[in-house]
Structure formats: structure tokens, C-alpha cells
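Supplementary Methods. Inverse-folding protocol.

Structures were first reduced to a C-alpha cell string of length 325. This string, shown here, constituted the complete conditioning input.
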């Protein structure tokens, strides 16, 4: 601390006309009386995590042994106990019994008080649409939680990247520093929605340049529906092969009859709508039906060979029929 700094201190006692204050207890060899006072008054204590025991951690404070349950070590679930071993942390004594031989601590209580102060400051500063730095604190199946300076926000799976993402681990890792955009702030429900995708270039902004109508490109079948097959041309850019364009002229009931998931196809760009984010595709060898119909309606070429008059028997029959008439 420096001269002029503001500190939060706790009053201990008045001895010999001198008032004694402390920021925390536990340094050196604090006696049982000081620790009991800390329990009664809520003064935080400093302790070193010395080992992992059944149900939590052993902690040394002021030369005395104490216990911190897993649930009280952090505001988040303890995923790796080694992250806390041999570290000196600030705790509150939540139980003090048997003349100091049964002390239970909580680092979570201290951190929650700090977070509440940070949260109040963030409420004044954060706005929706703002880009902010954060640290990934937890990976879940549905997304990643990010500490943005005192509160946690969630990046859902759909906001991790422009393309389809099935596993958060493919994009982020725990303790990774990230830039995110605040999508939604709901302080009453304590829910903050974040987006990593919005910090990345939008592939649809230049889609017309990269996929001009009539051009050929390769893609992978990513989804099948009754009306057609979706083909991923690049992460975030999908096109649709409508069922009417599949089957090479043969009528099919479902795209799975001619294509399968994961299959790589060469397709032609039929149309692009960057506003609606839609690309229509056709097979590279697709021929429009109207062209087929024209070819089928064209007369057969005339033969230059002489037309046969038939056999002699045919000629006699024709002459007899003519006489009867």
C-alpha cells in the first residue's frame, strides 16, 4: 500500500489508548483468541492450502490447522484440486468450535463479497453491443462461461463461430483469454449472454465475390431434410440442393436416396441471396427440365434410305382389296 491509498480495515481492540486495526488475520502465529474474534466479527483470515483431504482441503492459519470443504473453496465448482494446493488465500471462518480445534473456512464467502462489489461497478460500465475481454472459466456441453471482470457470462454453442460447432472444446479451452461481444444483459436474472462469433469476420459479407452464380465449388453434405440436402461450402456458409434438382431426372422421395451425410460434392451456384443468407445449388451436371422437354419434342431426323414397298404378298392383298371396292 502507498500513502493516500484507501484500505478496508477491521477494528480489533483499543489498548493503552491506541486503536488496533487489521486487514486480515492469520499471518504469523495468530492465537485462538484472535481467530475466535475473527469468527465472531467476520474478519477475513489468511491461510495456506497445505493438502487435499476427504471432502475438501486442509488449510493452515496462524499456525493452526483448519478445513475448507470443496463447496467453499471457490464460487465455481472445484474441477482440479491441484489448482489450489500450496496457495495462500483469504478465507472467512464459518465455524469455530472445540476451542479452535475445529475450524471450518470459506474462501467462497470472501470471493462472493468481492464479486458483488465488482458487479455493482460493472452495472454502471457495461452496455449491450460492447466488446470486452474475458477469461474462459468453465466448459459445458451447451457453451462456455467467461469471467468478464467480476461476473460470468455465457457464450452459447450457436455464438462460438459462424459455422456449425458441435463441441465447445474445438474452439475454446479453460483459462483462455478471449474477446467477446455482449449480446444481452439481464442483471435481475443474473444472466449475461456473450458472442465470440460477432468478433470474427462475417463470411456472408463477401459471399458474392467468392461464390459467383454459375461457378463450381466443392462442399460437404451437412444435413438432410425432406426438401433437400444442405451442403457446407465453408464454415458459416451453407447452400441448399433442392430435392427437385437431385436424382438426375429421376423422381426421388428423399435426398438420402442419392446423397449421404459427410459426402463431398461438386456443385454449381444457381443463385445467391446475401440478405437472406441463402444459396441455391444444383449438381455440376444438372440439366434444366425445359431443356430436356425441348429435346424430347424435337422430330426424329428423316432417313435418306428408300422406303420399302413391302413383300409380294402384301402387294397382292392391296390389289384384291382395291378390286372389291
Amino acid at each position: 500500500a502507498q500513502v493516500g491509498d484507501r484500505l478496508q480495515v477491521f477494528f480489533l481492540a483499543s489498548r493503552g489508548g491506541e486503536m488496533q486495526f487489521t486487514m486480515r488475520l492469520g499471518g504469523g502465529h495468530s492465537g485462538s483468541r484472535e481467530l475466535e474474534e475473527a469468527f465472531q466479527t467476520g474478519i477475513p483470515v489468511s491461510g495456506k492450502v497445505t493438502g487435499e483431504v476427504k471432502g475438501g482441503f486442509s488449510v493452515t492459519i496462524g499456525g493452526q490447522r483448519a478445513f475448507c470443504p470443496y463447496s467453499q473453496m471457490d464460487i465455481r465448482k472445484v474441477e482440479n484440486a491441484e489448482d489450489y494446493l500450496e496457495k495462500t488465500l483469504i478465507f472467512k471462518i464459518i465455524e469455530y468450535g472445540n476451542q479452535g480445534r475445529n475450524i471450518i473456512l470459506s474462501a467462497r464467502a470472501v470471493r462472493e463479497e468481492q464479486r458483488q462489489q465488482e458487479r455493482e461497478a460493472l452495472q454502471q460500465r457495461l452496455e449491450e453491443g460492447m466488446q470486452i475481454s474475458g477469461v474462459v472459466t468453465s466448459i459445458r456441453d451447451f457453451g462456455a462461461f467467461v469471467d468478464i471482470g467480476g461476473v460470468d457470462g455465457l457464450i452459447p454453442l450457436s455464438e462460438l463461430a459462424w459455422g456449425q460447432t458441435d463441441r465447445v472444446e474445438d474452439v475454446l479451452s479453460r483459462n483462455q483469454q478471449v474477446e467477446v461481444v455482449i449480446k444481452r444483459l439481464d442483471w435481475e436474472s443474473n444472466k449475461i449472454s456473450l458472442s465470440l462469433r460477432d468478433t470474427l469476420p462475417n463470411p456472408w459479407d463477401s459471399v458474392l465475390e467468392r461464390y459467383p452464380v454459375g461457378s463450381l465449388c466443392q462442399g460437404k453434405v451437412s444435413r438432410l431434410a425432406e426438401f433437400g440436402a444442405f451442403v457446407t461450402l465453408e464454415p458459416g456458409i451453407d447452400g441448399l440442393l433442392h430435392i427437385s434438382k437431385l436424382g438426375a431426372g429421376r423422381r426421388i422421395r428423399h435426398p438420402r436416396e442419392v446423397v449421404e451425410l459427410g459426402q463431398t460434392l461438386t456443385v454449381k451456384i444457381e443463385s445467391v441471396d446475401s440478405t437472406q443468407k441463402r444459396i441455391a445449388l444444383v449438381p455440376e451436371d444438372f440439366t434444366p427440365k425445359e431443356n430436356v422437354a425441348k429435346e424430347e419434342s424435337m422430330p426424329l431426323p428423316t432417313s435418306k434410305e428408300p422406303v420399302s414397298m413391302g413383300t409380294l404378298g402384301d402387294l397382292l392383298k392391296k390389289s384384291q382389296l382395291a378390286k372389291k371396292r
